[in-house]
């Protein structure tokens, strides 16, 4: 594969790994490095007839490929692997990527994850979108000691009810992003205070997917909003196959809410945004909406998405979360922006998947092995040492003895505001701006003009 980052003389090094191959080789010696990586996937035999030195490190990638989010993740994974191979691989071993389609189904995910660990004998797995899919394969991948770097789901239960509760069994699992929904609720409550300061909005309705990732979200957010002296007249969970929104919008309007915080990962809220704009409902639409992260969303809604916001890891690449954010986004767009199939930008899972593959590379080089069957503890210890500046933000993990063991640590500014889950807003000209937090803002949040 051609180098997708070769868009300028310095861009190809703007977001490379923070622990280089040469430093690893200097520390171990080339011969030792190769020996430590024996046991990787691939063929090869030594003169003594032993296991030999593997030629490749194989990374499995799981995503729903019927969803642009999954396609963006696949492409981002391919970019990460191409970049790593162009810079010497993992300790001089080339990297192979194998992507399997989960079809957003727990049963299908178990089938294809089984193929990765049994037939392909992958050295690590990255990906999965929904928490239900993530948790459905955790028993399987832990049985094979396969490092599992989650890049799309956000339910705290993945770590609290699995990793933290049965550490020896599930220590192979790490959540690279986004921040879990416990912290997402805190982000939204902080954002609510920002909207109160800016617009005088103090009454918020809460409407969410009836799904695993929103369980903690709904409960904690309501408590946090009330603690901040905000009114919450409505909390509603919607079936994930909901397609009609007239009654929901009418209920929010009748309750006098200044804004509706909706949290949709499974529900397509595009029809809701269209009805909201056409009816000029007297409240804002804020929160989390995965479908609205699609780069073509504004065009698909014929502009009715204007003023809608969503949080998203990577902020769609419109602001410098780190020095790597914009270069990675531009590199992706240069390679895939004209592709027939969306998305033309990585979307949030793409940012996190790209970072996760680099995180695994660095950890494998620190550990000196990808032989999880015999050296899982070394790989886990190396992952726990992670302090990586990625395209979506800084990656550090909670420790083994902490409540959110192996989960992504939230990043905070000097005022305690969480910064690694920013909010973007669609504007009248079809552009996307980062409106929160202030440290990453590219434009002020705009209220719909019909609200006065």
- DSSP strand content: 15-25%
The tally of beta strands, per DSSP, is: 14
Named CATH topology of the largest domain: Rossmann fold
The CATH class assignment of the largest domain is Alpha Beta
Morphology: globular
How many individual domains? 2
Q: What is the CA-atom radius of gyration, in angstroms?
A: 22 Å
> Topology as H/E string?
HHEHEHEHHEHHEHEHEHEHEHEHHHEEEE
Q: Please give the alpha-carbon distance between the first and last residues.
A: 53 Å
Mean pLDDT: 89
CATH architecture of the largest domain: 3-Layer(aba) Sandwich
Low-confidence stretches: 1-39, 41-53
Count the helices. How many? 16
Oligomeric state, counting identical vs distinct chains: single chain
Strand count, sense and barrel status of the largest sheet are: 5 strands, parallel
Specify the structural class.
alpha/beta
The proportion of residues forming helix, as a percent range, comes to 25-40%
* CATH superfamily descriptor of the largest domain: Response regulator
Strand arrangement within the widest β-sheet reads: 2-1-3-4-5
């Amino acid at each position: 594969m051609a180098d997708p980052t070769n868009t300028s003389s310095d861009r190809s090094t703007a977001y490379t790994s923070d622990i280089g191959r040469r430093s690893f080789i200097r520390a171990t010696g080339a011969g030792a490095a190769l020996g430590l990586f024996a046991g990787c996937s691939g063929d090869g035999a030594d003169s003594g007839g032993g296991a030999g030195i593997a030629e490749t490190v194989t990374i499995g990638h799981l995503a729903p490929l019927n969803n642009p989010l999954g396609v963006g993740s696949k492409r981002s994974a391919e970019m990460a692997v191409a970049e790593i191979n162009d810079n010497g691989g993992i300790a001089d071993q080339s990297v192979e990527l194998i992507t399997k389609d989960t079809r957003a189904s727990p049963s299908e995910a178990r089938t294809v994850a089984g193929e990765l660990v049994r037939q392909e004998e992958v050295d690590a797995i990255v990906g999965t979108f929904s928490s239900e899919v993530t948790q459905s394969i955790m028993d399987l991948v832990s049985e094979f000691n396969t490092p599992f770097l989650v890049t799309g789901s956000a339910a705290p239960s993945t770590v609290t009810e699995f990793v933290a509760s049965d550490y020896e069994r599930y220590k192979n699992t790490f959540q690279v992003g986004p921040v879990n929904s416990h912290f997402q609720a805190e982000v939204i409550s902080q954002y609510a205070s920002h909207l109160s300061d800016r617009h005088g909005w103090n009454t918020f309705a809460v409407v969410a997917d009836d799904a695993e990732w929103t369980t903690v979200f709904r409960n904690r957010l309501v408590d946090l909003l009330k603690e901040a002296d905000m009114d919450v007249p409505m909390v509603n969970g919607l079936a994930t196959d909901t397609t009609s929104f007239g009654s929901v919008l009418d209920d929010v309007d009748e309750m006098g809410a200044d804004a509706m915080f909706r949290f949709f990962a499974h529900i397509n809220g595009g029809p809701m945004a269209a009805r909201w704009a056409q009816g000029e409902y007297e409240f804002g639409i804020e929160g989390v909406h995965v479908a609205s992260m699609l780069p073509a969303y504004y065009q698909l809604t014929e502009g009715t998405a204007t003023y809608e916001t969503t949080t998203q890891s990577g902020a769609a690449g419109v602001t410098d979360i780190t020095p790597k954010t914009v270069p990675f986004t531009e590199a992706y767009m240069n390679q895939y922006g004209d592709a027939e199939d969306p998305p033309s930008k990585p979307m949030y899972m793409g940012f996190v998947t790209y970072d996760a593959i680099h995180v695994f590379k660095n950890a494998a080089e620190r550990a000196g092995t990808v032989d999880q069957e015999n050296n899982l503890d070394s790989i886990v210890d190396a992952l726990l040492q992670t302090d990586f500046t990625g395209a979506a933000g800084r990656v550090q993990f909670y420790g083994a003895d902490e409540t959110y063991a192996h989960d992504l640590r939230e990043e905070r500014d000097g005022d305690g505001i969480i910064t690694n889950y920013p909010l973007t807003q669609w504007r009248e000209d079809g552009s996307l701006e980062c409106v929160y937090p202030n440290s990453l803002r590219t434009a002020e949040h705009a209220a719909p003009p019909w609200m006065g």
